[in-house]
From TrEMBL:
GO molecular function, one term: protein serine/threonine phosphatase activity
NCBIfam families in alphabetical order: PRK14559.1
Protein name: Protein serine/threonine phosphatase
UniProt xrefs under InterPro entries: DZR, PP2C, PPM-type-like_dom_sf, PPM-type_phosphatase-like_dom
Domain PPM-type phosphatase: from-to ranges: 387-644
A Pfam family per the record: DZR
């Protein structure tokens, strides 16, 4: 079976395109130049970029067999091919492929059949079917799983990865595992291009809070790694990495030696080694903790986390005393260097202190327990924000009745301490109704009215719900007046849906009327719909009717409210506020994109990858629209994507 890279649908091996979504199963675009390249090709024929799917191979106890080295394939089926120095145009230096008597052979491999389901995944799916068919209590399934792993031939060295899957992405996911004679082969996510944590610390002048944040992440892994016998993973400097977004992760897992169990004292020595390379000017803050850790006075993970929490709180208090004035005050003495700005209408962005962090409302690091491991709950700030909007008539419509607006003001402050972002954004999507001559006018009126209102009514912080509601009522009144002046009635009255988002820093306000939607996509929770459609079927569901019954009625998708047809007293916009705490993709869209559960089916392949800083939002949205026109296309399609990258606020 061929697994579709877009919708994950299982297709017959002879398929040239996915039977569900229509995407090509023969070739993909080169990430550098866009040329279509076969999935099996190693390099782009146009620009030479390395395009193959890569995995990080671990082969134990020693090195690949002689036949593997001669043919360069690790497996009899010739799916996984060793990448050698002769393979040019790799996007990173190739590490030495030398065997280690204790660690085995490590190498990069390319996947020559990347759309085929891995044998490991098939075995695990079969195992879950067996477990679900059994009557064993859930608490017994853990031992039963381990027993089944042995029975179905999964290598022993793969077990730690399978048992710690809940700690992904810090611990890499396992793709494949098999026996080859007396050897075991494991394929992991490729992280060899990630930066060494030690190099990052040595090059960057990091705030102490950021250092404490990473130390806490390591401490939180100690007990789960103890349970699988892999604490050594935190004691190998080359194994500690950070990705493009400065998120901590391990290159692989290292098994503990039978004759010596790693201790927290060893972890303290590793931290001392890292801190020695750091450029931080506040190393003394950790000196006593490291002394207590290395001497054995701190001998419990919970105790260590409490000490890290205390250090973080003290550092935060010190930072608050030093920086009483607003982070972005005009009379700041800090040398921020160049400032890049994108202007909005006058008065749209006014000076305020809404980005300042109030320490009394924060918990820096929660205490760690053996049952539940906390992470550093630091105040977050913007690292970057990227937005893009697009509209398309669709395959079946002759005119586009949708309108959207994207207004953002981003100020970047650069200094030798890094980059700080200040941002404010107004995002609007309207789906007009009433025919070309009416729907297009209604959506345009709504967008312009809202833009004009917030250009003069957005002061300090996000507008309150009353102010947002007032803006929506004004938009409704403007369209309603046109309807009254034209003396239109019934289906001839123009109207529009509305979904709107206001963003300031890490805070968001959303409002909507009708069935246009806003979604939140992140790596932890996947796709979340943040709005509830104003339609007959949904109203029935909210009143207790079963969804199947509610949506079987012929008027189920008829709107219960929209802007324009009626006076504002009949409009009840939904308004809510969100605080963002992690990297997030926000999507505003008309129903031309969201119909037929299109996003629920395709978000993991089309939207989740766009969370990465290296992903191009314009290209991603274009591809999303192309696929939407294949699967839906019956209506106009409009969407705005906003990518928000966050980092702990350490200053």
């Amino acid at each position: 079976m061929l697994i579709c890279p877009q919708c994950q649908y299982d297709n017959p091996n002879h398929s040239q395109s996915c039977q569900r979504c229509g995407v090509s199963l023969a070739e993909k675009p080169c990430p550098e130049c866009g040329t279509m390249v076969s999935f099996e090709e190693q390099n782009c024929p146009n620009c030479g970029a390395f395009t193959a799917t890569r995995w990080w191979a671990l082969i134990t106890p020693n090195s690949p067999s002689l036949s593997a080295l001669e043919t360069r394939y690790l497996d009899p089926g010739e799916r996984y091919r060793l990448i050698m120095e002769s393979d040019l145009n790799l996007p990173f230096p190739l590490p030495p492929q030398t065997p280690d008597k204790d660690l085995g052979f490590q190498a990069l491999v390319m996947d020559c059949q990347p759309l085929q389901k891995s044998v490991l995944k098939s075995l695990l799916e079969q195992q879950e079917e067996w477990l679900n068919a059994e009557d064993n209590p859930q608490e017994e399934n853990s031992d039963r799983r381990t027993s089944l792993w042995h029975q179905i031939g999964i290598p022993q060295r793969a077990f730690p990865y399978l048992k710690t899957r809940q700690f992904s992405p810090i611990i890499p996911d396992i793709h494949e595992a098999w026996h080859d004679g007396n050897q075991e082969v494991i394929l992991l996510d490729d992280r060899i291009s990630w930066q060494l944590l030690s190099q990052f610390w040595a090059r960057e002048e990091l705030p102490m809070l950021q250092i404490v944040y990473w130390l806490n992440e390591m401490a939180s892994l100690w007990t789960p790694l103890t349970e699988v016998g892999c604490c050594q993973s935190l004691l190998v400097e080359n194994n500690l990495r950070v990705d493009e977004d400065q998120s901590f992760g391990l290159l692989r897992l290292y098994e503990d030696r039978d004759d010596r169990q790693p201790t927290l004292q060893d972890l303290g020595r590793m931290w001392q080694q890292l801190l020695h390379q750091s450029k931080s000017d506040k190393k003394e803050a950790l000196d006593q903790l490291l002394k207590d850790l290395i001497s054995g006075q701190i001998n419990q993970v919970e105790q260590l986390c409490l000490q890290l929490q205390y250090l973080a709180e003290q550092e935060q208090l010190t930072s608050d005393e030093v920086g009483k004035k607003p982070l972005f005050s005009e009379d700041s003495d800090d040398d921020y260097g160049d400032v890049d700005t994108v202007p909005l209408p006058s008065n749209f962005f006014q000076e305020d202190d809404s980005f300042d962090t109030d320490a009394e409302h924060e918990t820096i690091i929660e205490g760690c327990t053996t049952e539940e491991f906390s992470t550093a709950d630091l105040p977050m700030q913007l690292l970057s924000i990227t937005d893009v909007g697009h509209t398309d008539t669709g395959r079946l419509r002759r005119h586009n009745e949708d309108h959207f607006a994207l207004l953002s003001d981003v100020t970047k402050h650069h200094s030798n301490r890094g980059q700080t972002i200040r941002a404010r954004g107004l995002y609007i999507v309207c789906d007009g109704m009433g025919g070309h001559a009416s729907g297009e006018v209604a959506s345009a009126i709504a967008v312009k009215t809202l833009q004009d209102f917030f250009a003069t009514h957005w002061e300090k912080g996000l507008p309150d719900a009353e102010t947002i509601e007032k803006a929506i009522f004004l938009a409704n009144d403007a369209i309603y007046k046109v309807n009254q002046d034209k003396d239109s009635y019934g289906a001839g009255r123009m109207g529009t849906t509305l979904v709107m988002m206001l963003l300031e820093g890490t805070q968001v306000a959303i409002a909507h009327v009708g069935d246009s939607r806003i979604y939140q996509i992140n790596r932890k929770w996947g796709l979340q719909q943040l709005t509830v459609d104003h339609e007959v079927g949904q109203k029935a569901v909210q009143e207790g009717v079963e969804p199947q019954i509610a949506y079987s009625r012929p008027d189920a998708y008829q709107l219960t409210q929209a802007l324009g047809p009626h006076e504002s007293q009949y409009i009840k916009p939904d308004i809510k506020y969100l605080d963002l705490h992690e990297d997030t993709l926000l999507l505003l869209c008309s129903d031309g994109l969201s119909d037929n559960k299109f996003l629920e089916i395709h978000y993991s392949s089309c939207l989740t990858p766009l969370i990465s800083s290296g992903a191009n939002l314009d290209e991603g949205l274009e591809k999303l629209f192309a696929l939407a026109n294949q699967k839906n296309g019956h209506d106009n399609i409009t969407a705005i994507l906003v990518r928000i990258k966050l980092q702990p606020c350490f200053d």
